[in-house]
Write a structure and sequence with these properties.
This protein has a single domain, classed as tricorn interacting facor f3 domain (Immunoglobulin-like, Sandwich), CATH 2.60.40.1730. Helix content is 21%, strand content 40%. The protein has five helices and 20 strands. The strands form four sheets. An eight-stranded mixed β-sheet has the order 5-4-8-2-1-11-14-13, with no helix packed on it.
Length: 328
């Protein structure tokens, strides 16, 4: 029996209502979504599913954990990152790891236990990492990839720079196969990642919205490092970040069961009043669905909204990205 996904139900309800009832949705995003659904998604699916060699290699291991470290400045369309991936071998004598990774990005080094190892980028939007030792079936190990570049945004705009009231924002939206556009990953719905730590360094005037719990904000010189962590299984395409000068506020939903769900809102400063006014509907939906169908599955972390320059929205796990709030 298919597991009930309360998170997606709540998110889709909120986002659909917000999109339909807003007087003027973003036409470009609407047209893009329509075009993508008819053309781009099919093209990407063909590219993704017919790259049999990469799919076979990715089937040799399971993702266990990601440590995702990025440096971003919303003023500059650019990303640099260091991705540490812990994986478990599914075959005897595993000696090669393959990740989906855009050819538009450049790798500076790959480390294994702190030492550089060899790798190749064969030109098919993948990176192949040669392990210096053979791993037995069930053995857990890790590799670290450092890279940078200007992502080539595909799909619904997998990595994009935009503006609100003249202020820059960088956001991601990886559905359906766009995660590889901005970081080395395994784009598989069959292999969810067990847990994540996300570290984003950005100029200190900006804030970072992402999945899970916000653990810390650390000032380092003129920058600030945001640390998010997520401890529920998650599909690759649902990992997301958005960076701009957000105003933030937290509300709480008290349930009949005695549980409390935190709802975090990351909104543009110019939108705080309208967002506050509309927020009460989300709390009513959350309470209603939790009481009728079971508690929101990520209640130990949060449900969140992050505003971004799009006409609709995307239900990233624990942090929906939305163009505008729900209207009553």
């Amino acid at each position: 029996m298919r597991k009930f996904n309360l998170h997606k139900i709540v998110c889709l309800l909120v986002m659909t209502q917000g999109f339909v009832l807003n007087a003027q949705p973003d036409l470009d995003s609407f047209v893009c979504k329509s075009y993508c659904s008819k053309h781009f998604t099919a093209t990407m699916r063909y590219d993704f599913e017919t790259n049999k060699d990469a799919r076979d290699l990715e089937g040799n291991y399971d993702i266990y954990y990601h440590r995702l470290e990025w440096q971003l400045d919303p003023n500059v369309l650019f990303i640099s990152g260091t991705i540490t991936t812990y994986f478990k071998s599914k075959i005897p004598d595993l000696n090669l790891i393959c990740f989906d990774f855009s050819d538009s990005l450049s790798v500076s080094q790959v480390l294994y236990h702190g030492s550089p190892i060899s790798y190749s980028t064969p030109g098919d939007n993948t990176i192949h990492v040669d392990l210096p030792t053979l791993l037995a079936s069930g053995e857990i190990d890790s590799v670290t990839i450092s890279y940078s570049g200007v992502p080539f945004a595909t799909g619904f705009g997998s990595f994009k720079q935009g503006f609100h009231s003249g202020i820059p924002i960088i956001h991601t939206l990886s559905e359906p196969y766009g995660a590889r556009d901005w970081w080395p990953c395994k784009q598989s719905l069959e292999d969810k990642i067990d847990s994540l730590d996300i570290f984003v360094t950005t100029p200190s005037q900006y804030s970072v919205a992402s999945n899970g719990l916000l653990v810390s904000e650390t000032i380092v010189g003129s920058d600030k490092i945001f640390h998010w962590e997520h401890h529920y299984p998650i599909a690759t395409y649902l990992i997301a970040i958005a960076v701009t000068n957000y105003e933030r506020f937290v509300e709480y939903v008290d349930l009949v069961s005695g549980d409390t769900i935190e709802i975090h809102n990351f909104v543009y400063p110019e939108s705080v009043i309208s967002w506050n006014t509309a927020a009460s509907s989300t709390y009513l939906y959350m309470r209603f669905f939790s009481e009728k169908f079971g508690i929101y599955p990520f209640h130990e972390e949060k449900y969140g909204h992050a505003q971004f320059p799009w006409g609709g929205g995307m239900e990233h796990q624990t942090m929906s990205f939305m163009g505008a709030p729900l209207r009553d």
